Amino acid sequence: MIVRISRRVAWIVTLWLLAGFLGAVLVWMAPGFGIDERVLDPRWTKDSSVALRGDEQARLGPVSFYIDWLEHFARGDLGESNSLGRPVADLLRERLPITLRSAAAGLALGWAAGLILAVATYFIKLPGFDWLTAAVAGILLSLPSAVIAVLFVMLDAPVSWAIAAVIVPQVFSYARNLCNRAMCRTHVLMAAAKGVGSARIFFWHVLSTIGPQLLALAGVSVTLAFTAAIPIEVICDSPGVGQLAWLAAMARDLPLLVNITLIVTGITLTANSISDWATSASGIEGATR
Amino acid sequence: MTWKRGIALGVLASIFGLAMCANLVAPYPYEKQFRDSVLAPPSAAFPLGTDDLGRDRLSRLIYGTRVSLLLAPAAALLTTLFAGAFGLLAGYLGGAWEWGGKAVTDLFLSLPWLFLLLMVRAMLPLNASPEASLVITFALLGLLGWAVSARLVASAARGLKDSEFVLQARALGQPSWRLLIRHALPNLRPVLAAQFWLAVPVFLLTEANLGFLGLGVAEPLPSWGSLLRELEDFAAVRENPLLLAPAVLLVIVLSCLHIAARGKEQWS
């Protein structure tokens, strides 16, 4: 058990370091990176400008830049944002909690609503109810997060509701499919044939089967919530990291954008690993990846 | 083919056909500006009204549909080809190839999709010409969206490696490249087809999000993403609900694609 967890943690750290290297390479390749401002001074001769450029590039190759960045990162120094002129760590400290709160509330709300709807389709056998829920889920699945955000702004609803609206159809569709599949299992059919009540079948036989599989979706839904946070925070004018990432992209502030991406990657990797671990601990391999 | 899938494919074919004939169907060119009719309400001349530059919204919607419906499948094809080659090599050859392939796909899967896109998009020029922005947007989607498909293809290729017909072919002395091309690849076709159909709606949605954020296809070229930007003016949407037309069309097309893709999943 400990060996498995250690391996998993080592794999997460490796992936995170690789992602950091990828980000460092992108920053290094970005136009204007590492150019000495003195080069812009027209009083330097052409030879001097070339020499200044050469010095800078030699000093900052992608690997040395990455190692330099890692050293600073370990000390909590994430550099300074080019566009906002402020330390990246300060920006993240201010904005990350806002996104974390919205994403957590959105996830809780989305999961609750998705599961309630899935359970409702199991118990409520009204004509058209199943079709109606599937249609609503289908429409929400087919709308970009940005449009969902617009609709929620028009309704004066909080950011977390818009994030929940992105999560609901995923959870609902997945849970409903799992329920339908579980209903066809032999032991469930046998229980129904023996006259066991539908509530008892659901809570004793169906839920115990689909529970671990639903855990596999939990990790994915965290990634989904953070991805949806970008357009939603931009449209809803919520000052979280999603909006910050967009501002950084519009200003081509790659150091800031790479740092945000790595922090979010760390969060989603951890969430996915916990979900994987919980799924495998339950004895069922996640089938959603 | 179920009746639902038949209807979905029929609707898709009709919309695709109309969009491809944009030159004939659209009342005006997409960039033509009617300076005397800026923000005109819906009328016989402009069924969906005009935008803030006096351009006919219906014409832009038809041309935008053509752009999105042509390029999202092109990006999906690119991603499927890439995922096919990568997954086939990693899954079939095994060993270091498989380990390396797993590391690269895990790396791409660990990076949240939209953050990764923003990161790479921000590296490229933002003030590119409309045509260049079009190519950049969809090429990025195609080049960065292959990881999930590659993992599935690798898993399917791994399963094929020890199948009887491959073992027999190997025993007959067939070279590896021939085994890959002639035996493994044709058997992966259903998986690749399903991945293609699943990638198209994802790319359409992502382009719409990127366009909405101003990082997609550049003006004056229309795409669903850039057309949806008009929804940012909440007051205008309340006054003229026809502004939601691109969103409604997107929902119709994506719903049809989901139904069509479900059929493909069942095949694979």
Entry keywords:
heterodimer, A: 289 residues, mainly alpha, MetI-like fold, 11 helices, 78% helix, B: 268 residues, 12 helices, 73% helix, elongated
What does this entry show, briefly?
The complex is a heterodimer of chains A (289) and B (268). Chain A contains eleven helices and no strands.
Structural account:
The complex is a heterodimer of chains A (289) and B (268). Chain A has two domains: 1-77; 85-281, MetI-like (MetI-like fold, Orthogonal Bundle). Chain A is built from eleven helices and no strands. Chain A has helices at 2-29, 46-59, 62-74, 88-123, 129-141, 145-154, 159-183, 186-193, 198-236, 241-250, 254-281. In chain A, α7 (159-183) runs antiparallel to α9 (198-236) and α8 (186-193) crosses α9. Chain B has 268 residues and is mainly α. Chain B has a single domain, classed as Orthogonal Bundle (MetI-like fold), CATH 1.10.3720. Chain B has helices spanning 3-20, 22-25, 57-93, 95-110, 113-123, 130-144, 147-161, 164-171, 176-212, 224-228, 234-239, 245-267. Classes of the chains: A mainly alpha (289), B mainly alpha (268). At the A-B interface, α1, α5, α6, α9 and α10 of A face α4, α5, α9, α11 and α12 of B.
* Helix coverage percent of chain A: over 70%
Order of helices and strands of chain A: HHHHHHHHHHH
Poorly predicted parts of chain B? none
CATH superfamily of chain B: MetI-like
Radius of gyration of chain A, Cα only, in angstroms? 25 Å
Classified by CATH, the class of chain B is Mainly Alpha
- The helix/strand class of chain B is mainly alpha
Unreliable stretches covering 5 or more consecutive residues of chain A? 285-289
CATH H level, superfamily name of the largest domain in chain A: MetI-like
Q: Which architecture of chain B per CATH?
A: Orthogonal Bundle
The secondary-structure class of chain A comes to mainly alpha
Q: Helix-strand pattern of chain B, N to C? A: HHHHHHHHHHHH
* Record field, number of beta strands of chain A: 0
Biggest sheet record of chain A:
none
End-to-end gap of chain A: 23 Å
- In the CATH hierarchy, the third-tier topology of the largest domain in chain A is known as MetI-like fold
The percentage of residues in β strands of chain B lies in: under 5%
Broad shape of chain A:
elongated
User: What's the number of structural domains of chain A?
Assistant: 2
